TrEMBL record:
<keyword id="KW-0408">Iron</keyword>
<feature type="domain" description="LapB rubredoxin metal binding">
    <location>
        <begin position="355"/>
        <end position="382"/>
    </location>
</feature>
<keyword id="KW-1003">Cell membrane</keyword>
<protein>
    <recommendedName>
        <fullName>Lipopolysaccharide assembly protein B</fullName>
    </recommendedName>
</protein>
<feature type="binding site">
    <location>
        <position position="371"/>
    </location>
    <ligand>
        <name>Fe cation</name>
    </ligand>
</feature>
<keyword id="KW-1133">Transmembrane helix</keyword>
<keyword id="KW-0479">Metal-binding</keyword>
<feature type="binding site">
    <location>
        <position position="360"/>
    </location>
    <ligand>
        <name>Fe cation</name>
    </ligand>
</feature>
<keyword id="KW-0802">TPR repeat</keyword>
<dbReference type="InterPro" id="IPR011990">
    <property type="entry name" value="TPR-like_helical_dom_sf"/>
</dbReference>
<comment type="function">
    <text>Modulates cellular lipopolysaccharide (LPS) levels by regulating LpxC, which is involved in lipid A biosynthesis. May act by modulating the proteolytic activity of FtsH towards LpxC. May also coordinate assembly of proteins involved in LPS synthesis at the plasma membrane.</text>
</comment>
<keyword id="KW-0677">Repeat</keyword>
<keyword id="KW-0472">Membrane</keyword>
<dbReference type="Pfam" id="PF18073">
    <property type="entry name" value="Zn_ribbon_LapB"/>
</dbReference>
<keyword id="KW-0812">Transmembrane</keyword>
<feature type="binding site">
    <location>
        <position position="374"/>
    </location>
    <ligand>
        <name>Fe cation</name>
    </ligand>
</feature>
<dbReference type="InterPro" id="IPR030865">
    <property type="entry name" value="LapB"/>
</dbReference>
Length: 389
């Protein structure tokens, strides 16, 4: 676009902005201008997305501020923010707040947009101050509180995050908010554990379970506390509670349980319990744990037979590798062949994600209680399937 045409379009835009402002004073005289006004706004929207940045900046400075043009100012600010030009978005929203002609009913909306600009720019102290200012607002209070919680989670200021979250649970039963509060409290319990403050860690874990009885992380924390105390049987019973809270985390529970029993208990005593759980919530981790328990009590051949039978119904790579380990060298398979099968199987699993967020699809090999992508609690879970659970 050459410079003459660009300035011609800018002139048209400025005239259109003046026309939008004039519409407010003539609305009483006719209903027709309403549709004309909306048409002008659409044209302006097109123009600012096609102008050079300097042309848009000049246009914004010349555009009047009133109830008819605030929306356009906000659209331009959002446009710059989405382009990653946060500094310009900040200037637009700061300019709006500083203009005495800004209608009062828009001040909270502009303040919220400016707070989001600050968040995107990494100016967290400024964002925090504005979001606190908005917490009591009827329209923007809840959104501002949620943004504050996310900010505090990012900064790992769990005490402050909990304080804000509790303001959102007053007088209403919001399951999602209580789950968030439970996991924030678990973070505080983890901090207490790092400092070996077992009394505080236990208090906070119990508090988390009061907020959300299905909070599996709080139960795992209770399990760790019992292990530190030497109460191994009670710790094992804690891990079994996970199947009632959320069986999707059963593989996590059984892995911890088997490690505990190998070190401090008797794997064989778990045969009946593991068998019952497997019938209700079958998974590869549960099957392998059950196979190990059966091998301890009834011998290798019984374990092999169980594993073969279940793999025909629920095939899995991990199950196959265990079968090769237990019985792969029988019926003509050489040691080298067995090692080759094992190597290929482990290569298949090596780079596969183990966990996936059921909310946004984020995946990885590490369990995150707070999804790094969508920032939701307890949505990252073990993947089910032939190459996973």
């Amino acid at each position: 676009m050459d410079i003459v045409l660009q300035w011609l379009l800018l002139t048209v835009a400025v005239a259109a902005g003046w026309f939008v402002g004039r519409m407010g004073s003539t609305r009483e005289r006719s209903k027709t201008p309403i549709s004309d006004e909306e048409s002008v706004k659409d044209r302006l929207q097109f123009l600012f997305t096609n102008y050079s940045d300097q042309a848009v900046e000049n246009f914004v400075q010349s555009l009047a501020v009133n109830k008819d043009t605030v929306g356009l100012h906000l659209s331009i600010g959002a446009h710059f923010r989405h382009k990653g030009e946060t500094d310009r978005a900040i200037l637009i929203h700061q300019n709006l707040l500083a203009r005495p002609e800004l209608p009062t009913r828009f001040s909270q909306q502009v303040t919220y947009e400016l707070a989001i600009d600050y968040l995107n720019a990494g100016l967290l102290d400024r964002a925090e101050a504005l979001l606190h200012q908005l917490m009591g607002d009827r329209e923007y209070g809840r959104k501002s509180s949620l943004q504050l919680i996310e900010l505090y989670q990012q900064e790992k200021e769990w005490g402050k995050a909990g304080q804000v979250a509790r303001t959102l649970t007053t007088g209403e039963h919001d399951a999602r908010m209580y789950k968030m509060l439970a996991y924030i409290t678990c973070e505080q319990a983890e901090d207490a554990l790092k400092h070996d403050d077992r009394w505080m860690a236990q208090k906070l874990a119990k508090e988390a379970l009061e907020y959300d009885r299905s909070c599996v992380r709080a139960t795992f924390i209770m399990m760790r506390l019992l292990i530190r105390q030497g109460s191994y049987r009670d710790a094992a019973n804690q891990s079994l509670k996970i199947f009632d809270q959320n069986p999707e985390f059963g593989s996590e529970a059984v892995d911890r349980l088997m490690k505990l029993e190998r070190e401090h208990g008797d794997v064989g005593r778990l045969v009946k319990k593991l068998g019952k759980f497997y019938e209700t919530w079958p998974s590869t981790s549960l099957l392998l744990a059950l196979v190990e328990a059966v091998e301890r009590t009834s011998g290798r051949m019984a374990a092999i037979e169980l594993l073969r039978r279940e793999l025909e119904v629920r095939p899995s790579v991990r199950g196959l590798l265990r079968l090769v380990e237990l019985a792969g060298y029988e019926k003509g398979m050489t040691t080298d062949e067995g090692r080759l099968v094992s190597r290929i199987g482990h290569l298949i699993l090596a780079n596969r994600p183990i966990y996936r967020c059921v909310n946004c699809g984020f995946s990885g090999q590490q369990l995150h209680w707070l999804c790094p992508s969508c920032k939701q609690w307890e949505t990252v879970r073990p993947i089910q399937g032939v190459e996973a659970e």
